[in-house]
Amino acid sequence: MLPRYLFADVDDTFTVRGGIHADVLEAVARAERAGMEVILNTGRPAGYGATLLAYLPMVSAVIVENGGAWLDRRVKAPSTQSPGGSPVATAGHEHELHHFRPPAANLRTRLAALQERVARRIGRAFTTTADNQYRVSDYTVVRDLPGGTEGAALLAEIARIAEEESEQQGHILASSIHIHFMLDGAARRSKAEGAAALLAHRGVSDAHGELARFAVSVGDSANDASLFTPGRFALSVGVRNIERYLPELGESVPTHITTHSEGFGLCELIADLLSGRLGVS
Known about the structure:
The protein has 2 domains: about 180 residues, Rossmann fold, CATH 3.40.50; about 80 residues, Hypothetical Protein Ta0175, Chain: A, domain 2, CATH 3.90.1070. The longest helix is centred in the middle third of the chain and has 17 residues. Strands 7-4-3-2-1-11-12-13 form an 8-stranded mixed beta sheet, sandwiched between helices. It has a 3-stranded antiparallel beta sheet with strand order 8-10-9, with helices on one face. The chain is an alpha/beta fold and about 280 residues long. The chain has 9 helices and 13 strands.
């Protein structure tokens, strides 16, 4: 059966060599025409998500900052007023930013201080990402780590220190390009929780059940682990380049791995879903 939803990571899953390829756009457009809702689910910042949603009409929503917030084309933006009090028309490409948890006023300052303390503890200098200034709920540094088990062990150490340095309130997620610092406390965000929150905000009464029955997830890295957790989605898929990050995923590995990498793997997945070679029962 064709899934209702396809939740897709962006970097190295939707993209090809760091850009958006015409073949991927056409595949996503075919999925949308067939009745499959395509929702991007990325660690990228809220500012990037607004741009993606504005210029990709075949995408219905974008979840950003690893589930920390989302923008949804299917939810009407609130009306606004001019400084003089008169109503202002909302353009069709403008969408309200919804938060998994409303961020505290000083959150970003606290996150910057946390990553500095962690860097001192491990004896490494972190490089802040170029997109960090467009974020609302996390703080990101460039992932500059060894591969394989050595990199996985270092990430585990960074995660442990982040918890210690924040009285167990902080944690990290690592993508193929970034390390994300967050202060979520016990109720930690994830891409899967962001997907459920988006559906619940639409009025879906059993959002987790909806995902488990009717949604496909696809990603390529460790911050996509929640997309691969057994039972969370009807079908979980990794594009081929996920293989280098399997040591970081533990038991949260995708059910299916494509033969092609990056966005071409996403094209392969969409073709398999539309042809019936893959689907949800």
